[in-house]
Here is the input.
Amino acid sequence: MSLRFIAKDPNTDGANCPTAWADAEKQEVVLQGWLPDEATLAKCREAGPIPDSEGVIRIPIRMAAIIKEAFDAASGAPVQ
Here is the structure.
């Protein structure tokens, strides 16, 4: 697996925080985030069921540049 660490949420203590990785081989981004509460899950399920093989996570908007970097790295685009 060609999983490359991109960054953790810069506004956390560095432990148990949202994190982004890129997998250029599979052209995928892997994200770690906070689990949603039941109200959020219920709202998400309005769009359709969530399969057992999938999950919903919460990521702070302040990580937008980190997530973009992960997508760029996964697609093979030059990382700024």
About this structure: The mean pLDDT is 92. The helical segments are 38-45, 64-75. The chain is about 25% helix and 20% strand.
